[in-house]
User: What shape does this take?
Amino acid sequence: SEDKEDKKRRNNGDSTLFVTRAESGGFGDGITNNGLTREISEDVETVLLDCDGVIWHGDALVPGAKKAVDYLRETLQKRVFFVTNNATKTREYYQWKFSELGMEVDVNHIYTAAFASASYLSAIGFNNTHGSTTTKDGSSSSNKKIYVVGEQGLVRELEECDVGDIVGGVYEAVSCTSSDWEEMHEWTGGDAENDHDDDSRVDAVVVGQDTSFTFAKLAYASYLIQKGAKFIATNPDAGDRLGKEKLLMPGAGPIVKAIETASGRAPDVICGKPGKYMFDAIMSHSHGDPQRTMVIGDRMDTDVKFGKDNGARYSVLVLTGANKMKDVEENEDESKQPSFVVGSLAEACGIPFDPNEPTQRVGERANMAKNYPVGDGTVHDLWASGDDDMDDDDDDYDDDDFIPAT
Assistant: This one.
């Protein structure tokens, strides 16, 4: 029979191996446990870390998380990428948030579902210097047109990567009557056979979480997709459990499903976790090997599946976030079954920490929102093509290194 050490180090991926939990107070009670130190040290070069539920809860650090990130990057010299399915915020915002929490992170080591969506569009030829089309009046246009169902963070990433013009669509309209539906025929260029020659044609619909989602947006997005626009989903997350009752607040997934049902078409690609595109992009950027990669997250349906579906060596579930041990025990889907279950990121790294350490938080919320758009629902002014209100020259996004060869 296997001894305890052999069981802990079993890595065939066919079953979950429980290492430790944080219920007894982490290492605060003198517990000694090496966590996954051997696996990380010997088998892993690249670590993909989820953020919310692993490194922080909202604006507050998870106990031991900063120490664990420092240990991975500085002591073990691992390549660490921070990977989030939140498509409502920009990478600039996350860089600022890390800094507020005491961690300096290169923006090119941050992957969001919003940036992955922009990167994907660039990879398939959506950029403002790629080719040209001829409009009905004979003029030449090189810009693709994109309709966005989402927040400011998604819009800004698309604009920063210069993948095309963001069209206004229905702006703040709420309803869509049968007459409105018929008028969309004119908005989108008239007869279908002539649409490819018309400057009004929308080439892609990008869908993420949208706290201002309306029937009008559902109708317009589904109409464009039925007319031939590419259907790009940022991520499939059902939502987050918030508030005292921990009830599920809808995320991007329900909106994606609504548009899929209305249009009769599944998304052409899911750019965030657990999709293949984001994983391949990170591997390309880091020159990484999936079999030398560990994914650590708090969700089985996105983080664990992200690793398992894409061939990562280890997919690790931490119990500081969405899923608990009960979820693991009840799971029957092998693609969602973690290689290891650990109490926290610090325990995965096998480092001592104080579970009652003072909570470090980000700065004043109003200042944060002012400097880094986080998606407050007021997005209509950004949706008009050519609006430069959100442009700044402080940082130019260079996404060339993030786009895997196609």
About this structure: The first strand starts at residue 17 and ends at 20.
